[in-house]
Amino acid sequence: MAKREKTKKARKNNLVDQAVYDAYKDAIPADEIWDYQVEGLQKPHINKPFENMRAKKIVVVIILVIAISVSIFFSFWILHNDAFKYTALEDGTTEFTRFSNPGELRELRIDYMITDVQSDLQITKDEAGKEIRTTTYTLTRDETRPITAIHEYAFNCDEKIRVIEIGRDVTKIDEKAFYSCYALREIRVDEENPNYCDIDGVLFDKDCTELICYPIDHDAYLRERFGYVDEKTGETTQFWPTENWKNEGKDKYNEYYTRQYENEVNTYVVPSTVKKIGPLAFNYSELFRLYLPEGLERLETMAIFRNWHIERVDTYVGDYDGNEPKDEKFIPDGANVKYSLPDSLTYIGSDCFNSAIEMDYIYIPENVTEIGHHAFWAAARKENGKLIGLYEIHAAREQADFKENVTTGDEWTGEYDNGVFPKNVPVLYGETRLPLPEEPAPAESQK
Amino acid sequence: MARDTLAKVRSFAGDVRKHWSKPAEGRYVPYREYKDIFVAVGSNYAGSKLLEYIWFGASCYLFMYHYQLPYLTFAIIGLINMPLNYVWAMIGWVINDNLGFLEKKKERMLYGLYFGLIVIGLTLILAPISLLFNQNGAFVTFMNGLEGINCDSAFKILGTHILWNGWAGSRNIFWRKKLLPKFGRYKYSLYCDFLPKIIMVWVIGWLPLYNIPDMVERVWKANLLFAVYSIFGFGNSLEACAQNISPNTHERVLVRTYPIKLSHLAHSIFAIVLPVIVGWLPHKWEDINLYHWVLPISFTVFALLTMIFAGRIKERIPQPPLEKKVQINFWDGMFGVMRNKYKWVQTIVGLLDSLGNGMLPFATILYLYTMRLYGLAYSLIVALVSFAGTPPDLFTPFFMKRFSYKQIMIFYQLSRAAGNAVIVASLFFLRGSPTLCGIVCIVVLIFMEMTKTVPTSVGHDMDIRVNDYQMYLSGERLESFSGVFGWFTGPITSFVGLIIPLLLLAHGFNSNWDVLYVDDSRLWIIMIPILIDIVGYLLMTIPYFFWDYDDDKQNKVMAVLRRREEVTAAQTEGQVSTNG
Predict the structure, then answer these.
(1) Residues A262 and A411 in one domain
(2) Do the beta carbons of residue B345 and residue B405 sit within 8 Å?
(3) Mean pLDDT over residues A59-70, rounded?
(4) Which is it for the CA torsion A237, A243, A246, A250, positive or negative?
(5) Which of residues 80-99 of B touch A (CB under 8 A)?
(6) Which carries the bigger pLDDT value, residue A68 or residue A248?
(7) DSSP state of A326
(8) Distance between CA A190 and CA A206 in Å, rounded?
(9) Residues with Cβ within 8 Å of residue A255, at least 6 apart in sequence
(10) DSSP H or E run through B537
(11) CA–CA gap between residue A25 and residue A19 (Å, rounded)
């Protein structure tokens, strides 16, 4: 019975439209098909002129023109970036909030508010007839408006600026101020600045206890400093001693030369006064080796973030203030160097070693009491069935001691592909620090 | 119980056998076509969803990881193109809503215009137009100050836009006229576009424009490449066709609920498989092989399957034969759509919805940056969330009968607001533990997905009903002329849509998505747009109080349309009905 009723209902559903249509078929005469009005709805209006057509057209056109014009104007107005944006601070000084490169500006001094930018484009041709465009900029400054602070992300993702000079009145620089400035080679600080200083283009606080920013393209500056300059173009030469170079048998490949290049350009020794490496300090650097001083206490969030080429982060013991002759580079010698992180370290921030895939050893000393989330994320993977990167983490503390006394964030060890699901990188507890691996010196004959 | 179920299955199987080729009385679609819809719409849907990985926008992985263009540049390009868009739109409406059948003189004039645009576009791209201006003057300085663009490249971008419109416009007339009588208004474009689209998907993957070191040059060349790519569509045309497959409103809902919904299974499976394949790539989503091989091969397969089955789906909109089609001139079209009350309701809803424009894809950020998911784990979570909507959707006909469209849509907006509020709370209060925060957000996403699919189906049905009503009012569906509402709201929505990108920029979001690894920046970048979106959802409940287009009215409108079809068809055959 119920089944029959359901069938009936379904059939009714199918036929309800048909029933309505059958009723309407008789109600709508053939000559009224375009005018017939359904009750409760508007009347059709087909192939007939509208009333007051001209007036309606004018009204619609006027409304549209105004709406469109005003909106386009405001949209462009919002989108156009002034090259320099500032915010007035309560103490009457000025904060530098946003920089939008007016085109090809390579160097900028941040001391007073810039009120006008004039550019002058010169078009010349080189010997081959190729067009060369050179823009020079004239910046007008208001010397009654000193800049005292640089806001976070003020230089976000600029790809042109190479040198930033910090004036003497700048007393606060946000740690994210120079985020992703891929062409930034040097940050210079006025000697009279009370809060900050620079050592060879790297930004520190005044007493050199915190390293704030190692410019992303600092290696270009170092290439220039050590004479790796293309004679024809005057550009600093990028030298990548890759396996391909070896395989292709290029004359240029030379073990001695490569080691020297890496020491001069891709190695950095943090001054021994430094206690803290700031957030994002070394992000995206092209470093292969980083020497941290014994005495360093904190590696902040993302301090060595996305250093894809970094192979070693070691510790040295001794004094080094960062100053050295222009054509010499200080590299700690083997006797004073310890494999991996300093014993004095207490804190490793989140994503600190994210993507450090070329490293193969990390030792967490006993003093470390806090490790942020994803500190070693994406630093290990399986390649052709073989594990590479930081696929195991060595910790000084015993497991129980570690669990009790070290605060760790989510997924701090990282993970790697292991079949269907990823596997967490294991921690080896109660380990002693490995001795520094021996590196054979290049043959003298290659010199 | 089991016997009863078995009897039902047998009865259904018998019904399927009986009406495999010929539909039941009062119905229009035989069961064989249900099968064809399942395969054809499934492939078309999966292919079109796959193209969401290849588009000119900041959140496309190709731009995220390879082109690395500034976020605001995309909005600026939109603005450069915006003024002329109004002109192209006007012309396009007349062509589209007359289905490409124009008077000879008008057609020749339009071809002339479009070829002229192609020449102008190419000139702007190839010639250094900016040199005609004072290089140190205000105009050039202003243009050089735009993010990712300079004066020279702005002209090339404008040229690209003009070239695109000339090319697309002439194709539109040519192919509509040629293919529409044979394949109908929804399917015809697939036949002329699928092959060039396949070629362009491969070209985009392999053309290494992302290696161009200068960003400004990278921007305009990428814009040109993607403009050519977007000339050829591969939209979800077969689903649009299948949604209009029957004049019987009840049958429409059945087709939408079962074969169409089940056809999305192909995409669901692919959505699980793709991240697994990506997980095998050394650099995951950042791996260029995704664009070299994975996406092109997958798209080619889906596109070919689509075309094999496309011909088996029929379009059955009750409409007069082409010879008796109502001719729509520009102002009739304009005023025709503006008379439609329900289009205004939908327009205001869309306007309020634009409050969320410019926000980044929250779920993607959650999975990739908060929870750091990839490979199978990523696939399973994505699949779980998207599958959550499927079971409730199977009961769509029940909900449609039990509740009014007005009730369903108001509930939908309120559920979005509530869900997003919980997400904001978890992002804020659980920011110290990304995993727990992620789990809470996923639970909320599942809830939101479950409460989304029925209103989405209702929304589709509302669109179709509004078009039926438009056909009753104006003699044509005027789907293109409906774009006039965008004229009123478009500039406002673009303007409002820029607020979020600017706020994101202030919190560090630009061309480098890695900023989302910075905890406090990620928090604000996600939270601010969601908060604005919540306000939008609450306001969007208001217009729905004015929706009074019910089943009874729809049935009567369909009856009028069928009567018109019957009478005009008879007139065409010279047999004018006399029975009134």
Answers:
(1) yes
(2) no
(3) 80
(4) negative
(5) 82-83, 86
(6) A68
(7) T
(8) 11
(9) A442, A443, A446
(10) helix B519-539
(11) 10
Which H or E run includes A388? strand A386-389
Task: Give ∠ CA B418-B420-B424 in degrees, rounded to 5.
Answer: 120
CB B58 within 8 A of CB B317: no
Among A353, A355, A357, residue whose Cα is nearest residue A373: A353
**What pLDDT does residue A1 have?**
44
User: Is A25–B339 a contact, with Cβ atoms under 8 angstroms apart?
Assistant: no
Distance CA B318, CA B244 (A): 10
Comparison of pLDDT for A307 and A64, the residue scoring more = A307
Selected from 3.40.50.720, 1.10.443.10, 2.160.10.10, 1.20.1250.20, the CATH number assigned to the domain covering B329-575 reads 1.20.1250.20
- pLDDT in the model for residue A340: 95
Based on the fold, state whether residues A382 and A279 are members of the same structural domain. yes
pTM above 0.80, yes or no: no
More confident residue, A193 or A1: A193
What stretch of H or E contains B17?
Answer: helix B2-18
A444 lies in the same domain as A315 = yes
Chain B: residue whose CA lies nearest to A76: B79
B196 CA to chain A: closest CA distance, Å?
Answer: 34
* Confidence tier at A5 by pLDDT (50, 70, 90): low
Helix (H) or strand (E) holding A121: strand A112-125
C-beta neighbour count of B267 within 10 angstroms:
19
Q: What is the dihedral of CA B42, B43, B44, B47, to 10 degrees?
A: 120
| CB contact B474 to A (< 8 Å) | yes
A211 is a domain residue: no
* A40 contacts: CB under 8 Å, gap ≥ 6: B548, B553
A96: nearest Cα among A113, A115, A117: A113
In a domain, A215, yes or no: no
Task: Determine the Cα–Cα distance for residues B70 and B77; give it in Å rounded to an integer.
Answer: 11
> Could you give phi then psi for residue A115, rounded to 5 degrees?
-105, -15
How many Cβ atoms sit within 10 Å of the Cβ of residue B467?
A: 20
Q: pLDDT tier at A368 (50, 70, 90 boundaries)?
A: very high
Number of domains into which chain A is organized: 3
Q: Is A56 on the interface with B (CB under 8 A)?
A: yes
Confidence (pLDDT) at A253: 60
d(CA A34, CA A36): 6
Distance in Å from the first CA to the final CA of chain B: 52
CA distance A366 to B386: 46
Q: Which domain holds residue A266?
A: 239-447
Q: Which amino acid is at B484?
A: V
Interface residue A76 vs chain B (CB under 8 A): yes
Q: Least CB-CB distance to A156: which of B433, B494, B508?
A: B508
Half-sphere exposure of A284 (CA within 13 A, CB side): 16
Put simply, the chain B residues between 475 and 514 with a CB less than 8 A from any chain A CB are: 475, 487-488, 490-492, 494-495, 498, 502, 505-508, 510-512, 514
Burial letters A214-250, b for 16+ CB under 10 A, else e: bbbbbbbbbbbbbebeeeeeeebeebebeeebeeeee
Alpha-helical runs (H) found in B311-354 = 330-338, 341-353
Chain A nearest-CA residue for B507: A153
Mean pLDDT per 10-residue section of chain B, whose length is 580 residues: 78 86 85 91 92 86 84 81 81 77 84 94 93 83 80 93 94 89 86 95 93 89 95 89 81 83 84 83 86 95 93 79 71 88 93 82 89 83 84 85 92 95 94 90 94 90 91 88 81 74 81 86 90 93 92 87 85 54
